[in-house]
Amino acid sequence: MKIENDQLYTYLLEHDIVEKAVAEPLFARAQKDNRQFADVLVCEGILDETQCMQHKAIIIGYPFVDLKAQRVAHDILALIPRHLAQQCGAVVFAREGETAHVAMVHPEDTHAIALLTQKTGYDIVPYVAHKADIHALFAQYADMRGDDKSPRAHTQRLTYEKIGLQGEARDIVDRAMHGAQGMIVVAGPAQSGKTTTLYTMLDVINTPDINISTMEDAVEYHIGGVNHTHISPKNGVTYASALRTLLRQDPDVIMVGEMRDEETLDIAMHAAMTGHLVLSAVDADSAADAMAKMVTMSVEPALVASATRGVVAQRLVRRLCPECRMSCFLNAREIKKLRKRYDADAMMETLLRNGYITEPSLWENIAFFKAKGCARCNHTGYRGYTGIFEVCAVSERIAGMMTQNATPDALMRQARAEGMVTMAEDGFGKAMQGITSVAEVMRVT
User: Fold this and answer.
1) pLDDT for the residue 146
2) Burial 86-96, CB ≥16 within 10 A → b, else e
3) DSSP letter at 64?
4) Residue 325 and residue 336: Cα distance in Å, rounded?
5) How far separated are the first and last CA of the chain, in Å rounded?
6) CA–CA separation, 273 and 307 (whole Å)
7) Which of 117, 150, 205, 394 is the most exposed place for a label (fewest CB within 10 A)?
8) How confident is the model at residue 423 (pLDDT cuts 50, 70, 90)?
């Protein structure tokens, strides 16, 4: 949990927690000595560590839990397997129905929360806690029997609906996934849920008559019937070398965790043109950026254009708590911000075309939903995460533009002309459905 010194300083003064005459010289000392302001406050006896953590938690918008005051039963702790708890820096300290209350070293880590949600099947409510207290609970796993150190096999089938892929975007992915060959790419920054989307695609088509193999840095999910290969560059097992070996076994479907270099990309693209369905991920901001990046990485732009069937770009947003979400309308400031950041007219046309509204309207007259907060969501207004997506089917026109090294902007314009819904538009549609809020969509797009 990273809080800048000036954030804590401003908060303490604005809420009259520490007098300016006391805080100002200590803040100056922390800045001069390149120390954490909180550490200086604790050393001088102005606040204790727990008080500092509580204030930091408020600043970043997460509740604080003092784990020292919690007695955590083994069956509750075991809701997250030890290997996953340590990987995510997270421990369950309470369960309420389908909600798990989880103390985290980094509660803002959306990828970890999405992973915990998928692996446990619970809605995750993250809390701030002392790192030392979280690690102390890790030690309790030693007293628990039967804890599995291997990646956990999920018991619930993954579906497009569960990750938030819906409508025409879902149909495009589904058609591409049922093709005999070709490449499907999932794009997004780190912690945007790309791995979960890739596994969902695999699980949807996973049947006994389809031979599926994966190659990953870390195997996060075990799917029955799927062959998983762990990549270990330190031991000479790279994506490229593992892919060459795997192709000799002639699987039907191959998932390459990430295409980071020219060699892996070109081998994967050749595989996608020779009877294999290949899924992979790239670190890119949008579908258009992903297409342009792959063309730039490859020595054969025409191969990339011919092999790629579809590109999915995504972000993770928090789900509104269904128990307390509120209907709302955008105010003048929010509408101004919307118009500055997005093509508001094009977005209105998309909402109309996809049935979110029945006729053109003024933005101030469109109903959305926003967070409120209740006991069920620990007064955060949110429970769990979902994805917002843009899915581009690579048409002949777009493939031709890729061959000619078209810019991301040009590719985006063509995709939009062919009907692609952007991530922001998908998000605004979900905000109208009460799935997430406009604030969440604007936070990530």
Assistant:
1) 46
2) bbbbbbbbbbe
3) B
4) 24
5) 22
6) 6
7) 150
8) very high
Q: Which pair of structure tokens corresponds to residue 403?
A: 């061959």
- Burial pattern 6-41, b for ≥16 Cβ within 10 A else e, equals eebbebbeeeeebeeeebeebbeebeeeeeebbebb
What percent of the chain is helix, strand and coil (3-state, nearest 5)?
Answer: 45, 20, 35
How many angstroms separate the CA atoms of 384 and 388, rounded?
14
- For residue 102, count CB atoms less than 10 angstroms from its CB and return exposed for 0-12, middle for 13-18, buried for 19 or more: buried
List of E strands, 152-200: 182-187
What residues contact residue 244 under an 8 Å CB cut-off, 6+ apart? Answer: 267
- Going by pLDDT thresholds of 50, 70 and 90, the confidence category of residue 1 is low
Average pLDDT of the residues in 238-259: 89
272 contact partners, CB below 8 Å, separation of at least 6 = 181, 182, 183, 278, 307, 308
Q: Report how far residue 113's alpha carbon sits from residue 106's, in angstroms, rounded to the nearest whole number.
A: 10
Q: In whole angstroms, give the CA distance from residue 372 to residue 383.
A: 12
Helices 5-14/49-60 angle, 10° precision: 90
pLDDT attached to residue 422: 97
Question: Which structure tokens are listed for 44?
Answer: 């001088």
183, 272 contact by CB (below 8 A): yes
Q: For residue 370, which phi and psi values (nearest 5 degrees)?
A: -140, 170
